[in-house]
Design brief:
outer membrane lipoprotein receptor (LolB), chain A, 13-stranded antiparallel sheet, two-stranded antiparallel sheet
Length: about 260
């Protein structure tokens, strides 16, 4: 199970595709079918996009650290390629991250650390580590593959004024996931996840992700602001999309480990 079902779509600059307009598109659907609809993202058929994002790290004592990110993403042969660059503050400026999806659901991940002046690949258990001090892991940045988990439909519930259906996902191979299960509150009108709870390998509630503000781009819903709360550490990470714009004909050379070293 690839942890987040939609955070990857935010950080890749991709919006969620709205479901068919009717009273409740989830009527009669199984948990597996709903999970598949969540995973189906669309970049509005764009060749590429640039996203400006603000990341705020909130400590247990309320202290805050803000970071500005520039995200370049494209689809190449149906696979997403993404470069995330940290612009400010000075202690992380120049740090860059590359994600290259591979056929079969895997991905290659690289990070460039300017202090070391080298690019290295993120592998193995390292992917379960914190992404740049945030409450997201490197594994969280991958798009989810609905086929690597079993999905069970639970109750219909309200989240604020929105009707949702709760889907519980458990990994088919527990040794390959940092989470024992994930529960997602999916808005019935358009399959947008409004709340996601993550349980660690001991079954304890670990993190909760909230969609705090939604917008629309070309008529499709976009999560513009999200907050991840870590229940074990008391910390939180807030993500705010400040802008998304088309980027046509992005060169292959922009999505290589070598390119991370050049702004």
């Amino acid at each position: 199970m690839n942890s987040l079902k939609w955070f990857a779509l935010i950080i890749l600059g991709i919006a969620l595709h709205a479901g068919t307009a009717k009273a409740d598109p989830t009527d009669g659907l199984t948990g597996e079918q709903i999970a598949g609809r969540i995973v189906q993202g669309s970049a509005f058929d764009w060749d590429g996009a640039r996203t400006r994002m603000k990341m705020t790290l909130v400590a247990k004592d309320g202290g805050k650290r803000e970071r500005a990110l520039d995200i370049l993403a494209r689809k190449n042969g149906g696979l997403v390629q993404t470069v995330v660059r940290f612009m400010t503050p000075a202690d992380v400026a120049g740090t860059a991250f590359l994600l290259l999806e591979q056929k079969g659901g895997g991905s290659d991940q690289y990070i460039y650390l300017p202090g070391l002046r080298r690019t290295r690949r993120i592998v193995g258990r390292e992917r379960e580590g914190s992404f740049m001090g945030s409450d997201f892991t490197y594994a969280d940045l991958r798009r989810a593959d609905a086929n690597v988990a079993n999905h069970k439909r639970l109750a219909n519930e309200k989240v604020g004024n929105d009707a949702t259906v709760v889907v519980e996902s458990t990994p088919k191979h527990a040794d390959k996931s940092p989470y024992s299960k994930i529960q997602t509150w999916v808005r019935t009108s358009d399959f947008v996840p409004l709340r996601t709870k993550f349980y660690d390998t001991k079954g304890q509630l670990f993190k909760t992700l909230y969609a705090r503000r939604l917008g629309k781009l070309e008529g499709k819903p976009v999560v513009m602001e999200a907050r991840m709360e870590n229940h074990l550490t008391g910390s939180a990470t807030l993500l705010v999309i400040e802008s998304i714009e088309r980027q046509a004909s992005l060169p292959d050379s922009a999505f290589t480990p070598t390119a991370l070293e050049h702004r």
